Amino acid sequence: MLIKGTGQLTKLLFRKDRVKIIVWLTILLAVSLAAAFAYPNVYKTEQDIMAFGLTVENPAMVAMIGPGYDLEDYSTATMFAHEMLLFTSIAVIVMNILFVGRATRADEEEGQLELVRSYPVGRLSYLSAAVIEALIVNLILAFVIAFGLFLSGLDGMDLESTMLYGSILGSIGFAFAGFTALFSQLAETSRGTNVFSFGFLLIAYFLRAIGDIESEVLSFLSPLGWIVRAYVFTENAWWPVFLSFITAILTIGLAYYLNSIRDMGTGFLPERKGRKRASGFLKTMFGFLLRQQRLNIFAWAFGIFLLSASFGSIMGELESYFADVDLIKAFLGEYPNESLTNQFLSLLIGIMALFSVIPAIMSVLKLKSEEFQNRTEFFYSRAVSRPFLFSHYFLFGLIVTVVVQMMIPLGLWSTGSVLKEMGVPFNDLMKASLAYIPALWIYVSLTAFIIGWFPKLSNVVWIYFGYSFIVLYLKELLKLPDWLVNISVVEHVPNFLTEDGNLLPLFLLMGIALLLYIIGIVGYKRRDIVG
């Protein structure tokens, strides 16, 4: 039978991922409940709610978090759904990509699937176990968040609405689990699977952002465009849930078919054959790393550029949109004398900066995957030292950070200066974006530090990354204490758009990054190499 042994393999995957599952579900539930409880304390009056509704109607906010509700429909519940649903969905999607990508192509690439198939199990049993694991995790997530919000007793959060909210998260997560399962059959490596999966997520977000502003047809081409049209807590439209689930069934069915006809260790999009003779640059360490990771870096850089360009095209409308709305001016927050464009750009650049460090972290983590797949032996069989290899991966990550981060001001300026008058000089955009680089280097050096001392715990860096995103996006809403906010390094970046930039924090961040790198290289020299 093609699925013989699926039940036992499902138990095996749950046992292997149990800690990760608990951590993910706990974080998603805690953030959702914390945000839900925060809204009544932040928006206390009808005037506050009206200000929120007017703020999120502008095109820039629509591009970021999706189309809003009618002004008369805004309440604590609808504000929560409008501001939290899309980004929570993206977090759930990332969770599913990582779980399914790990359980399919990564386990196959590392030889674990070959070991499993040496036992009497079906050809499709391991893929089936990965799909079942994703389905159960998403069902648990849907019910936990739904009942958590319902039991909160907050105004407007009735059982049907909270069930819909949780179901949207579970169904969109399962849909992207299906896409990842499909991409794992097309790609020949786990790296390729992740590139296709995260690339598809970026395209989906970009299509939704443009479609929500210009043409609704584009939004309906994106799964993210479906979920923001459920209008939870008002209309409670269930069709996005059903459509996401149908999409998951179709993509998983296609993945089953492709898995049944391909040879193990191969993909339907095999790696392109290289030249017979390597160039001089390819023979260098940096040349090798660039060759190995060029597709991933290009995809992220191009995606960041497109997203930045999409926001740049509407940035000039912010000031005119709220020129006569005194209520919004009174609600600007920390910098009431600054323009709305500058304040929104500050938040946008911070969020995009966190996205831009993802490929850099992945570049450094490649050293760990090469080690665990016994490929670093090929380096150490030659006259190559550990510090040499470790340092090149680290420096390559730093370079990737700079390259991808540069796409933010270039994207914003490329459309903002041509299509609209942004009112923000290119030099200011560049300074505000480059100011994040020392903080982003902390993530790279932290990754190197963990690889140097605790390689099996290297994914901890993603927990810190997620924490930084939560702090950046929700710190004002959650009223987090200063000591919690200051744990995130991006909170120490001077803002060159809304205040005079202080260079001292940048030098301190670079010093911390250097210290983490030095400690990491000491650990890498002392510990045993896997294999």
Automatic annotation (TrEMBL):
Keyword annotations of the record: Membrane, Transmembrane, Transmembrane helix
Q: Which residues form the signal peptide?
A: none
Where on the tree of life does the source sit, at the highest rank?
A: Bacteria
Q: Where are the transmembrane segments?
A: 21-39, 84-103, 124-151, 163-183, 195-211, 237-258, 295-315, 344-367, 388-413, 433-454, 461-478, 503-524
Tell me if Protease is a UniProt keyword of this record: no
**Coiled-coil regions, chain positions:** none
Name of the featured protein: ABC transporter permease
Q: What species does this protein belong to?
A: Fervidibacillus halotolerans
